[in-house]
Specification:
13 helices, mainly alpha
């Protein structure tokens, strides 16, 4: 028996009313982002008769969820605490970002874009959980989160190599979902590029790439303080680098070949800038507690990756 949408709202909070005419740039930013996600990203991607809805709910948790309602209905819940976190993350390095992104506008302009990019990232990640079939084998909880691993391990079809390493299996799920966030971000990048300069001006292209790179890097850096001890997720730096490694690859499929090197270079330069800024200005940046389980983490996934991909083929919608 499926879960009713009203029951989800009882658990996670009621949807926040959207206001297309609000003078509050924060409300306007997430209202317009939801409208864009529903119209441009979710509706055209209905596969195998699956319907996916998205809501921002009134809940102070810094989190988002993908939830399976029944065999054909899914919902993405973004909690309002995530919006507050987004604004604080942006405010955290306001002087640096104001200077680096000045071509994109003033404080409120960049703040609105920051909310827009963050929501797209989290929506894309949760969409990845749905479209890659992660919820299809989480029968008891109907969603994937830090509490789902116990239920997943009861699945007889799970390869023994993954049953033996539940944390790595969960890491692979999160990294797999992150891949769809890159697709969402790349589409948004194209839309913003058209909005700011129709001739794809070099400076504008680089500023928008910097905006997304700074957002992903800072978001994961700040998120790292929430669950330093939670090994069921990949380290936030590893996730940031994985996403930013895929980002130019996806962008390059959308542009002519003579732009590809510039795109890769722009992402690399932005990563160096934000790394240098944080290492010079934040005493917590190189705190060993944040990095303590980051040692050569990619090598842990090498043997399990093929088994994981084969397992997901059974459940994936694509």
């Amino acid at each position: 028996m499926g879960i009713k949408l009203e029951d989800i709202f009882k658990i996670h909070g009621n949807p926040i009313e959207e206001d297309n005419e609000s003078d509050d740039f924060e409300v306007f930013a997430y209202t317009q982002t939801l409208k864009y996600i529903r119209k441009e990203l979710l509706k055209p991607t209905i596969l195998k008769n699956k319907n996916i809805q998205i809501f921002v709910v009134n809940n102070f948790e810094v989190n988002a969820h993908a939830i399976k309602l029944d065999a054909s209905e899914y919902v993405i819940i973004i909690k309002s605490g995530l919006i507050d976190f987004t604004i604080k993350t942006y405010g955290y390095d306001i002087d640096f970002l104001k200077e680096e992104l000045k071509l994109l506008g003033d404080h409120n302009d960049i703040m609105g874009l920051w909310v827009y990019i963050t929501m797209l990232y989290f929506a894309g990640h949760e969409f990845g959980h749905i479209i890659n079939g992660h919820l299809e084998f989480s029968k008891d909880s109907y969603m994937i989160d830090e509490k789902s691993t116990t239920n997943i391990l009861y699945m007889k079809s799970l390869p023994s190599s993954l049953k033996a390493k539940p944390d790595i299996f969960h890491h692979l799920l999160e990294l797999n979902a992150d891949r769809y966030s890159v697709t969402f971000l790349s589409q948004a990048f194209l839309n913003l590029l058209v909005k700011y300069k129709k001739d794809y001006d070099k400076d504008t292209l680089e500023s928008l790439i910097e905006l997304i790179t700074y957002n992903i890097y800072l978001t994961h850096y700040k998120f790292g303080f929430f669950d330093v001890k939670n090994k069921k997720y990949p380290t936030h730096f590893f996730r940031a680098y994985s996403i930013l490694n895929d980002f130019p690859k996806v962008l390059n499929t959308l542009f002519k070949k003579d732009t590809h090197e510039k795109i890769i270079k722009a992402v690399d330069n932005a990563m160096y800038k934000i790394f240098d800024y944080l290492s010079d200005n934040d005493e917590n940046f190189l705190n060993e507690n944040i990095h303590k389980y980051n040692a050569d983490i990619s090598s842990l996934y090498t043997k399990e990756q093929k088994d994981f991909n084969d397992f997901l083929k059974v459940y994936s919608f694509v």
